[in-house]
């Protein structure tokens, strides 16, 4: 009987998934977790906040989280996907990022419960995009901050913003939306302060507000273009967001996002595990730095810039128990610079059904665009070469559905993978520098390359950026 009990105990132990439990944040932080870009931003880190990451790799609930806040002035929680860095370059190692149209269908299936004592509060899709070079309005930057509101308080940011202009309307997903453009002048954006446009889709009737359903994000982009609200440059970000603003340090509330399934290009996607491409002027921070005070209108006249945050750097650390680093942020709230996988933290890439290196992971059509918005010919996306296909491991390929790496201090990589595969290492110029046949689900390999920033790549998975110390 004791032997049987021990056997059962071992079986239960080994049946536990290898995914790490999600971290809980109490200060402003940006981090990758199970393939989604998560962010907590709390202005001046005022009051008390908590954000627990509860999401999976997109196969069941996606980028979910729970949040509580009290005594705050302006707090924002979001989870989704960043496609480019703040210059519009792909996060997977150079080259111009893809436009929203080039990425194909984008939608979010979501469910949430939330409450807040503020009138200035929003639940919905949020992100940034760019005008194509030279096509931005005169005296404005090439950056666009956009909102697709699903539920809000009594304050309507779309109609109350500076120079608010209604551009049109359309019925999308069974809901009548009005489209607005507002101006933000000298306000925080992706790269410091400046002038930029805001785009809004807001339900025409408050009776259409909702806290669950499917949002066909790409359909909003298409309808916006028809009325002159163009986003003809790269798409920077799409995320599900909860925000609460009081302006007086008296905000209180809670939110639980129970579903946040992001779909890109026709199938359920796992967002890329790569972070924003590193720049020479930005290094990962070794400690959490509170953001400086954001420029906000008074509580009696609130403008709709509530969700932009410029961070000076961040550290990607998917599938890790806690963030290996937080974000030094300036006065706006959209990630402004680079991030790389930090030493000691693990990064991961997830897929379902062994998709190719296209953006589609499960149930979608194959495409030449990967989930990070770069073409299949980009530096780190060359794993489908004839050399790789000659590997005995890949002749009888079993689809890889989980791939994680953790850089160690002795120039080793700890690799966790769901099935045997070839792992290739590329430098930032796209040169393949090392290659490993990984035959077990957990294996440590020694690298001979010099210290620096590299990409790890497995056929059918997104590349993972890491720092080799």
Task: Work out the radius of gyration.
Answer: 22 Å
Helix content: under 10%
Distance between the termini: 50 Å
Mean pLDDT: 73
Tally the helices: what do you get? 6
Determine the oligomeric state from the structure: single chain
The total strand number stands at 27
Largest sheet: 9 strands, mixed
**Unreliable stretches covering 5 or more consecutive residues:** 1-20, 267-397
Q: What structural class do the secondary elements suggest? A: mainly beta
The backbone outline, from C-alpha atoms, is globular
Brief characterization of the structure:
The protein is mainly beta and 469 residues long. The protein is 9% helix and 41% strand. Strands 2-3-6-14-8-9-12-11-10 form a 9-stranded mixed sheet. Strands 1, 4, 5, 7, 13, 15 and 16 form a 7-stranded antiparallel sheet that branches. Strands 20-21-22-25 form a 4-stranded antiparallel sheet, with no helix packed on it.
Question: How would you characterize the overall build of this protein?
Answer:
The protein is globular and about 60 Å long. The strands form 5 sheets. It has a 9-stranded mixed beta sheet. Strands 1, 4, 5, 7, 13, 15 and 16 form a 7-stranded antiparallel beta sheet that branches. Strands 20-21-22-25 form a 4-stranded antiparallel beta sheet, with no helix packed on it. The chain has helices at residues 2-15, 100-103, 157-160, 217-226, 386-389, 392-395, and strands at 24-25, 29-33, 36-42, 48-53, 65-72, 74-82, 106-116, 120-130, 143-152, 165-172, 175-189, 192-203, 212-215, 237-245, 251-264, 267-268, 311-316, 328-329, 339-341, 347-350, 402-407, 412-417, 421-427, 432-438, 442-446, 452-458, 464-468. The termini are far apart. The chain is mainly beta and 469 residues long. It has 6 helices and 27 strands.
């Amino acid at each position: 009987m004791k032997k049987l009990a021990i056997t059962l105990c071992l079986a239960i132990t080994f049946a536990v998934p290898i995914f790490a439990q999600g971290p809980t944040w109490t200060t402003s932080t940006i981090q990758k977790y199970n393939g989604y870009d998560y962010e907590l931003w709390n202005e001046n880190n005022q009051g008390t906040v908590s954000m627990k990451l509860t999401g999976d790799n997109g196969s069941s609930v996606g980028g979910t989280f729970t949040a509580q806040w009290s005594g705050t002035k302006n707090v924002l929680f979001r989870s989704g996907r960043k496609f480019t860095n703040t210059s519009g370059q792909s996060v997977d190692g150079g080259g111009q990022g893809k436009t929203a149209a080039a990425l194909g269908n984008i939608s979010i299936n979501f469910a949430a419960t939330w409450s807040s004592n503020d009138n200035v509060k929003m639940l919905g899709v949020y992100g940034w995009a760019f005008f194509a070079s030279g096509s931005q309005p005169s005296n404005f930057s090439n950056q666009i901050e956009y909102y697709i509101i699903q539920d809000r308080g009594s304050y309507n940011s779309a109609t109350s913003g500076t120079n608010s202009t209604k551009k049109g309307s359309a019925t999308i997903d069974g809901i009548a939306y009005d489209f607005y453009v507002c101006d933000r002048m000298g306000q925080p954006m992706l790269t410091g302060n400046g002038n930029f446009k805001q785009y809004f889709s807001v339900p025409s009737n408050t009776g259409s507000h909702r806290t669950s359903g499917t949002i066909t994000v790409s359909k909003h982009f298409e309808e916006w273009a028809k009325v002159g609200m163009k986003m003809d440059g790269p798409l920077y970000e799409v995320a599900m967001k909860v925000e609460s603003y009081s302006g007086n340090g008296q905000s209180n509330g809670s939110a639980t996002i129970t579903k946040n399934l992001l779909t890109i290009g026709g199938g359920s996607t796992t967002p890329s595990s790569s972070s924003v491409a590193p720049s020479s002027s930005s290094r990962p921070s070794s400690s959490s730095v509170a953001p400086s005070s954001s420029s906000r209108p008074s509580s009696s006249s609130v403008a709709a810039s509530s969700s932009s945050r410029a961070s000076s750097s961040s550290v990607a650390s998917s599938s890790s128990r806690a963030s290996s680093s937080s974000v030094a942020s300036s006065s706006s709230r959209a990630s402004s610079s680079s991030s790389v996988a930090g030493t000691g933290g693990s990064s991961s890439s997830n897929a379902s059904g062994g998709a190719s290196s296209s953006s589609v992971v499960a149930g979608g059509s194959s495409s030449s665009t990967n989930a990070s918005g770069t073409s299949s010919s980009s530096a780190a996306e060359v794993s489908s070469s004839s050399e790789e296909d000659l590997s005995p491991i890949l002749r009888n390929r079993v689809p890889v559905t989980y791939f994680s790496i953790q850089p160690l201090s002795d120039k080793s990589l700890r690799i966790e993978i769901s099935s045997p595969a070839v792992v290739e290492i590329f430098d930032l110029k796209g040169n393949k520098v090392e290659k490993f046949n990984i035959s077990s689900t957990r294996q440590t390999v020694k690298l001979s390359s010099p210290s620096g920033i590299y990409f790890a790549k497995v056929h059918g998975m997104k590349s993972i950026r890491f720092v080799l110390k």
